[in-house]
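Notebook, p. 212. Picked up where the previous page left off. The plan for this session was modest: take the two constructs that came back from the sequencing core last week, fold each one, and keep the raw output in the notebook itself so nobody has to go hunting through shared drives later. Recording the first one now, exactly as returned: residue sequence, then the structure token string.
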Amino acid sequence: MGHRESEDLDFFSQHNFNPELLQSEIAKFGVLENTELSVGTVNTFCNGVKLQFLEYPYRLIGPQVSWKNMQLSSLLDIACTKLQTISMRGSKKDFIDLYFLLQTYSLQELFDALKKKYAGINYSITHIMKSLTFFADAEPQPMPRMHSLAAWDEIKQSVIKQVRAINF
């Protein structure tokens, strides 16, 4: 998205994959360190870059974007995933990402999209809403290296304002 320096690269697949086979393919690109394998997951550092590969069986609701021979999720899909991520662990970088995504989509639009993306999945809108205004875990975390200007207090107030504007 370009607003901050990314700490890692996350790759999601809707298809099952063999973690050991994927590890051997990644190793062709460089030295692997601190590799953790589990069903549907590979976490590693390759040449010092943190990589995460995850099976993610949820459907895409927006058209994929082609970039450097890769298919990337749409901003709408990223935003829905970000809401789910914040509901599990509200990191500062995730709130910052959401703040910039909310400059393209309203929170109401994201909740409408969430219903499509996670159709048939049991999730709590109430829990997500509460998570969007719970910043205690994020407060002590350092600000990431930013490419676009945004103050942490401005980010929090903007997200809170959008949460208050939601009508269900």
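Okay, moving on. Second construct, recorded in the same format:
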Amino acid sequence: MVVVVRDTAAHILTAVDKSLARRLPAIAGVLAEEILAEDAAYAALIEPAELRETILHNLRHATASMRARSADRPVDLSDAARTGRVRAEQGLPLASLQHAYRRGCRLLWQAMVETVRQEDPASLPELLPCVGDLWDIVDLMTGAVADAYQKTESERLARDIERRNALFDVLLGGPGADLPAGGGAGLVAEASAFLGLAERGRYAVAVVRSDGRGVGSAHAGPRSDGFQVMWRIRADHEVGLITLGSGDLGDAVRALGVPGVRAGVSPVVGSPAELFRARWLAEIALQTCVAAGDEVVVLDQRLPAALVAAQSDLAERLRTVVLGPVLRLPRAERELLLATLTAWFDAGGSAQVAAGALFCHRNTVLNRLRRIEELTGRSIGDPRQMVELALAVEAARR
């Protein structure tokens, strides 16, 4: 029975083929005008002439597919897939595209019915069962459109992410990015435009190491406190580009202060061209964090320690020259003296406060300090020598 119905339908479609073909350009024109008037996405992205030609091509292909279907031949879906790819690249919403296919199907069926009614009215009842075939064909086409569209969209998204990451690295540094600070103005402008960064603004960089939970997903995008962060995730750390706007750097610093996180934050800079150096300064700030524990450090709060961290060779030399005699002591005595000197510096030079932190008597602190002076040949009362001792202690912490 199905074979008979389809044979009859094929005969009818062949008989009215020329008459139906003459109707298709007008149908394509009407549908194109309606779509452009009703769908803002089409109106913004697709030229009227292109849309008319595409609709006309698809209508002709649908009628050919009806004949193929009635003859039990497979429907060619390559054109539908091609349309899906093209429209995805153009950025047309998939829902708009599929809706246009379905509208075209309804108009095509109406044209087929009207043509048969005019050419061979007696055959009209035999045509009606074929409406199911037409909708099956449209379902196949819209399915092919969706598959190709989604694959292309995924590929485009992946390319956008790769490009975003590459341009992020141009500004802030990363594998393969060797742009000197202040150089590569063209690349900086391109990267800034792609990432939506103003030529003049208020920016900072954070370099974060965490216990594995990461912070990017929790602090990405615009925030109610006036700043936003874009993140670049690496194997062992994350880099955040902070756009402050009118917000305060302290708000961003506090937002980073979550359990399991150590972070270094650069000073505020005024343009994307300064972000490359800001990233380096943020890394130096991170190096001043204590080895264990949670801490967010702004570079300007740790400049002496940052100076030591930035010059590792000189820091090692400073440590050896200034603290050498202390470092050669037995471990227990060495650590006791260094802890005392550190506590005294942290206490702002107050032996009383340092004694409280060390759970010992004030005189004990003073005795240990004199022992350090004897070993190093440097006096904590001499400003220059005290600076040497302070920097050497920072170097010993590394």
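Notes on construct two before I forget. The mean pLDDT is 87.
Flagging for discussion at group meeting.
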